[in-house]
Amino acid sequence: MRHTQPLRLLAGFAAAGIVAACASTPSSGAPTTNSVASPSGSPKASANWLAARVEQPAAIESAPTDAPVFCSPCHPIVGTYIDSIVASHGSYLAFGHDQPPSHAAAWTSTDASDWHRVATLPAPEGSGIAASLVEGNGAILAVGESAGVAAAWHSADGLAWTLTALPAPGDGATEWLTSVAASSGGFVAGGYEESSTAQRAATLWRSSDGARWTRATVQTPGGDSEVTGIASLGPASLLAVGIAGDERRGTAAIWRSADGGTSWQALSSPAFAAGRMLAVVAAGSGAVAVGERQDQTGAAAWYSPDGSTWVSSTGSGLANGGLEMVMTAVAADGSGFAAAGWRTDAGNGSAVVWRSGDGRTWVHEPQDVSFSGAGLACVLGSPRLMVGGTMGWPDTHAAQAWVAPSG
């Protein structure tokens, strides 16, 4: 099962933590455990963020939660992952997948602190959900992959779901949708095809109802490419961001559509050489994209006032002493923008949350003790600020959500 871009990078976070996880002594001040919030206990409150109680499969619930002094090979036998969180009908929904083998997964919560599995979600083997949105009437649309083809899940109430497999790419290729956004004509989703020889090509789709999908025309650069995020600038104006070249060493790519997602044109800018874009959001003050530096020595972010002209953002919060740090998700909130991701550190790696008032300058919030051994893949800005991902490295990967202290 291929993961979404954020989760492929979370795999990098896990690998980066192996050296530290296998060390005989944790660094000074680092937590000595990576406890998962107990599925049968109360949510864990730290000095800042509240780690929610997330219902897990039996294999996760029975896994040890103390980080070992020595471990080999330091790989989890089973894992659950949250990739997207939305608010609808007065409650919250989180989406992702379990593995192995991979199955799409969803959780629901009325208070953001106690999450239960959605048993009615279609979850065939080889499926997973990467992104979701809420329609104006409160219906939910989620996208990802099922059995090697792009797929969409649709529900009017979060209880009864319909799974639609999109037309297969052919020639032995597989396809994964990583992102979705609303457009003037309905919806737009993006991702990539992967050929039988592991070559990737960005793909974009449009749909009037979330059930019937048509491929859009998109300019792709030479070599590999993929779409990792989509944002709406206006009724018919959309942005898609992603990667041109290798998923770990490539550079940023942006496509723009002025016709509701029917056709897309590639943009160019010297700022794109700074790194890879993994997510994008548009707000009244402009558009913001986030990701990782091209040389993997820190996080990267970009700002555009109009979706066409882009500059690299700045701030001490983007640096990690030359070690890897990645912004995987971004959202607009009441005070500007919030981003989520992870960093390599002297412990087992840790989740990171960043804040920016204008999208041009970023700082990361003080490290929370509950973020040790965790990585974030999504952020919800409204009606409450919360983040989601996985935690428990190196002994297990367990889906987790956190609520901001002011949430």
Please explain how this structure is put together.
With about 400 residues, the protein is mainly β. It has a single domain, classed as Neuraminidase (6 Propeller), CATH 2.120.10. It has 2 helices and 31 strands. A 5-stranded antiparallel β-sheet has the order 1-2-31-30-29, with helices on one face. It has a 5-stranded mixed β-sheet with strand order 3-7-6-5-4, with no helix packed on it. The protein has a 5-stranded mixed β-sheet with strand order 16-20-19-18-17, with no helix packed on it. Strand 29 and strand 30 form a beta hairpin. The longest helix has 17 residues. The protein is globular, with a radius of gyration of 19 Å.
The number of helical elements comes to: 2
| Total tally of structural domains | 1
Specify the CATH class: Mainly Beta
Number of DSSP strands? 31
Write the layout of secondary structure elements.
Blueprint (H helix, E strand, L loop, with lengths): L4 H17 L22 E2 L4 E2 L1 E2 L3 H4 L17 E10 L2 E9 L3 E7 L4 E4 L9 E8 L5 E7 L2 E7 L6 E4 L8 E10 L2 E9 L5 E8 L5 E3 L1 E2 L6 E8 L5 E7 L6 E7 L5 E5 L7 E9 L2 E8 L5 E6 L6 E2 L12 E9 L2 E8 L6 E7 L6 E2 L9 E7 L5 E6 L6 E6 L4
Parallel strand pairs: 3-7, 16-20
Antiparallel strand pairs: 1-2, 2-31, 4-5, 5-6, 6-7, 8-9, 9-10, 10-11, 12-13, 13-14, 14-15, 17-18, 18-19, 19-20, 21-22, 22-23, 23-24, 25-26, 26-27, 27-28, 29-30, 30-31
